[in-house]
Q: What sequence folds into this?
């Protein structure tokens, strides 16, 4: 996923995917408002005498909207890859915008030319709509080709990367004081959760569909709480359940000791996040973990994934805690020493 994001212009991709869809939706809405004044069926091809080929209203609008989206995507997406020449990408962006607008104009002109008629055989394409819409499509396409910045743009992510690189250059030990990893329960646990929820949910869905859906949702939440994101750096220890819900945030200065150990989840209340008395635990399974003792007497237990990861986490926490007590709050916050 990271390689894909580095190879495309994210802003151009969002525009290339979104603009044709929004334009098609606008066309469908406009056609629906005009529907009471249109004959049935609608003409889709004309000669000098009037309509020559016909299609139902739904087919005219549906296939027309699909044509706008397909042609818009086909051309606009050519401007997305970063490995293509800048000039080509700018031309494709302008051409894609023009093509989507021009197709919409032709469809609208054909529809407006039939408004108020009882028989589509007497209709002709509305020349005013076609001329004005085509002119606007050409103008907007040219403007887009000129204003689209196909060069790589500096972003907030680049600012953060630069600050991180500067910090590592000023303080070579910063990388050694940082560890991030995921922990999760064994695969057999997720298999049991799936078996214990999907089969009953399938039976319940026959009689009460919403109850089966609730059971599946509850199982998914239970499985999510057996994942955790563990981060330790000079700011301290942070643990997020499912990678999004913060359950532990311990400043480095509040850590007294940290030691790797093999723990049984049952001794701490079971799997998942547990808090009893002065002890908080996030254990996704029994096995390697880190026990942290706080300066206020509290205690934490966090799964370490493997013995090597647990040992490194304990080492990092011990080191950053000593640094925080020795160097003061600026170092504890993760700033490079002056």
A:
């Amino acid at each position: 996923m990271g390689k894909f994001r580095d190879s495309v212009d994210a802003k151009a991709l969002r525009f290339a995917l979104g603009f044709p869809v929004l334009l098609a939706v606008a066309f469908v809405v406009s056609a629906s408002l005009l529907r009471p004044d249109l004959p049935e069926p609608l003409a889709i091809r004309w000669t000098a005498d009037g309509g020559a080929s016909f299609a139902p209203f739904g087919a005219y609008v549906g296939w027309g909207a699909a044509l706008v989206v397909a042609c818009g995507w086909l051309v606009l997406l050519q401007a997305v890859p970063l490995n293509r020449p800048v000039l080509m990408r700018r031309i494709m962006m302008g051409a894609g915008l023009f093509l989507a607008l021009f197709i919409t104009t032709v469809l609208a002109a054909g529809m407006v030319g039939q408004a108020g008629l009882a028989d589509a055989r007497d209709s002709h394409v509305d020349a005013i709509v076609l001329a004005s819409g085509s002119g606007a499509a050409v103008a907007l396409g040219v403007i887009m080709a000129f204003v689209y910045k196909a060069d790589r743009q500096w972003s907030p992510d680049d600012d953060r990367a630069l600050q991180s690189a500067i910090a590592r250059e000023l303080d070579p030990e910063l990388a050694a004081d940082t560890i991030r990893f995921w922990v999760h329960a064994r695969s057999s646990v997720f298999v049991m959760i799936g078996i214990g929820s999907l089969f009953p949910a399938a039976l319940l869905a026959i009689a009460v569909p919403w109850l089966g859906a609730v059971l599946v949702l509850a199982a998914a939440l239970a499985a999510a709480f057996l994942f955790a994101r563990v981060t330790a750096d000079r700011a301290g220890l942070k643990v997020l359940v499912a990678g999004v819900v913060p359950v532990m945030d311990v400043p480095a200065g509040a850590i007294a000791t940290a030691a790797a150990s093999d723990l049984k989840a049952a001794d701490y209340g079971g799997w998942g996040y547990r808090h009893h008395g002065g002890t908080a635990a996030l254990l996704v399974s029994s096995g390697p973990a880190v026990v942290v003792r706080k300066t206020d007497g509290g205690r934490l237990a966090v799964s370490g994934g493997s013995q090597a990861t647990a040992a490194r986490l304990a080492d990092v926490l011990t080191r950053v805690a000593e640094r925080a007590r020795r160097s003061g709050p600026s170092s504890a916050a993760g700033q490079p020493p002056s």
In short: Confidence is low (pLDDT under 50) at residues 330-338. The chain has two domains: 2-147, 161-185+226-332. The chain is about 50% helix and 20% strand. Residues 74 and 207 are 46 Å apart (CA to CA).
